[in-house]
């Protein structure tokens, strides 16, 4: 077993939960299927709850099972972090592993890296993902914290809000966009729409904005769904179409007049930029406070 601080029965439970199969869990753990079933029954007796149910021959976690899985994963991640810190020499501080969403990977990520680079004994690992991938990296213990935008299920995480960032529509003047005009959202369907990939917080907010007018990307003249942030920016700046994004993504270009904000009637949207980490990870309290001050 990788994590001896967790009871073997809990490890077995986690394997069944992730693989959704007693048989596959038994194969992965190199034990018999009856042994897996017995350990799950023992856990259910200890906690006095049902952990799994079958629905149409498929295995699902119960509400109590989901709660136990959250707790077990949190313990596993914290145990891994403690082991790493204990193995490091006195001369070397623990590595800083974090991620930001693509939209925040320039200014905000640089502020964090710039602060910590003076601490030469600290290894810095900074990754960029979309919102969903950041949360998955947290759950899997690959990163300590994430800086994310957009909506997410908050029950599993602790967070602090760094700021509220305007979410705006943008387009080039060459498309025929008038800087002083206030558009009805439906007027914009005559333009091509450039929008982000599945799992992106920006895509979720874009869909919400369009949905308020019973619109979707398919209603626009042409649609481009782009998974690369650099290509998304390039297409907007080259005038391929209009798009919705966080203002911080194009701050300099907006200030210089290279691209302009599209004024839309009754649309003033701002969403929180959140610093997020696994719930109950008290080891990060000091680090989180430092990062919060950096990003003020």
TrEMBL record:
Entry keyword annotation includes DNA-binding: yes
Top-level taxon of origin: Bacteria
Residues in HTH lysR-type domain copies: 5-62
Pfam families assigned to the protein according to its UniProt record, in alphabetical order: HTH_1 (PF00126), LysR_substrate (PF03466)
Keyword Hydrolase: no
Listed GO MF terms: DNA-binding transcription factor activity; transcription cis-regulatory region binding
Matches recorded under PROSITE patterns: HTH_LYSR
Keyword annotations of the record: DNA-binding, Transcription, Transcription regulation
UniProt cross-references to InterPro entries, sorted A to Z: LysR_HTH_N (IPR000847), LysR_subst-bd (IPR005119), WH-like_DNA-bd_sf (IPR036388), WH_DNA-bd_sf (IPR036390)
Assigned protein family: Belongs to the LysR transcriptional regulatory family.
Name this polypeptide is given: LysR family transcriptional regulator
Upper taxonomic lineage: Bacteria, Bacillati, Bacillota, Bacilli, Lactobacillales
